[in-house]
Specification:
Blueprint (H helix, E strand, L loop, with lengths): L15 E6 L3 H8 L4 H10 L2 E5 L2 E6 L1 H19 L6 H11 L19 E2 L4 E2 L4 H12 L2 E5 L6 H15 L4 E6 L15 H19 L2 H9 L3 E5 L11 E5 L7 H8 L7 E6 L13 H9 L5 E5 L9 H16 L1
Parallel strand pairs: 6-10, 6-11, 7-8, 7-9, 9-10
Antiparallel strand pairs: 1-3, 2-3, 4-5
Helix pairs in contact: 1-3, 2-4, 3-4, 5-6, 6-7, 9-10
Length: about 325
């Protein structure tokens, strides 16, 4: 389940205060956010009240929610002390990562793990949930990683971020991004233009991720130099991909034959990531999904990792998580 607002405390015994003191007023302004929007986000998600007086924040609420809010605020302030920014997504990530923690009085939860930040040319990227942290760790550790789960959980986004990070560091020489060119439940007919113009609509999510991590001019230059490639899955046949970071997105729409073909493209010094959502298969009826076949056959193979996501890992609009939960609940009752 995703984060949901707790019922605000109503009884006098629940109206307990925790007072937090932050010595640097400049950092405190960054912690609160413009018009105190970061504090409002914490209040809304946890059902507490956060009052600002000078360089102190007073958290009022039920004990569990109050301690969780205090831990989140301390962690975000420590992030600012380290010279990093605090945006709405960082607040959301801190809230998500604080859920499993059971802090003792006076203990600070370590919500932002050292070494988990991905450095790109535009901005640093961090996993926001425990599942995302495990996924990123496995992508660095294993030659072949699978990310399986619903839309909006960061499977492709984080995979491309890891690829860009490894490319910038020199660990790989090129990035190859691929998807099956399968229409999502509708026939689009013949598209105009050359081959690139025909396949670009299918590849747009990969372009979007790249442009989030690299300046536009650099992306264009790397495409021209063939150091970044985006191509339909069908174009992978016959190739050996060496010293490359390779991502196959929407892998549930690859056939079993295509999946085997793709995985056997792995060359020396390369890493592969396969992402997909088992609930969104657009293959013709009766055609087995290559993602399901790979999951069945490769479980337990050395050098291969599998990471799974659910609605709690959705990092798009909060409504997306609720939509996925409602769909899952309906399917479970059918």
């Amino acid at each position: 389940m995703g984060i949901s607002a707790l019922t605000p405390p109503t009884s006098p015994e629940d109206m307990v205060e925790t007072v937090l003191e932050f010595p640097d007023n400049r950092l405190l302004i960054g912690l609160c956010g413009e018009y105190d929007r970061n504090l409002a986000q914490v209040e809304h998600q946890l059902g507490v009240h956060v009052l600002r007086r000078g360089n102190r924040l007073t958290v009022v609420g039920a004990p569990a929610a109050r301690e969780q809010a205090a831990a989140v605020l301390r962690a975000l302030y420590a992030r600012l002390e380290a010279g990093r920014s605090v945006e709405a997504g960082d607040v959301d990530g801190a809230l998500r990562l604080s859920i499993p923690a059971q802090p003792r009085d006076g203990e600070q939860i370590e919500l932002f793990s050292p070494g988990m930040e991905l450095r790109t040319r535009k901005k640093p990227i961090e996993p926001r949930t425990e599942a995302q942290k495990a996924y990123v760790a496995n992508l660095f550790k294993h030659e072949l990683g699978f990310g399986i789960g619903p839309a909006g959980t960061g499977k492709t986004y984080l995979a491309v971020a890891v690829g860009v990070t490894m490319f910038i560091s020199g660990a790989v020489e090129k990035i190859v991004l691929s998807r099956p060119a399968v229409e999502a439940g509708e026939r689009l007919g013949f598209l105009p233009g050359d081959m690139k113009e025909k396949v670009d609509p299918y590849m747009q999510p990969l372009y979007d991720a790249l442009n989030d991590f690299l300046p536009a001019r650099q992306v264009e230059k790397l495409f021209a130099e063939k150091r970044i490639e985006i191509a339909p899955l069908a174009f992978m046949r016959g190739r050996t991909l060496s010293n490359a970071f390779v991502v196959l997105d929407e892998a549930q729409n690859a056939t079993a034959m295509q999946m085997k073909m793709f995985l056997t493209r792995l060359g020396e010094g390369s890493r592969m990531v396969v992402t997909g959502d088992r609930t969104q298969v657009d293959l013709p009826r009766g055609v087995t999904s290559g993602l399901a076949e790979a999951e069945r056959i490769l479980k337990g193979v050395r050098g291969v990792s599998f990471n799974y996501f659910n609605s709690a890992d959705v990092v798009r609009h909060p409504l997306v998580a609720r939509i996925i939960e409602a769909w899952e609940k309906d399917e479970a009752t059918v």
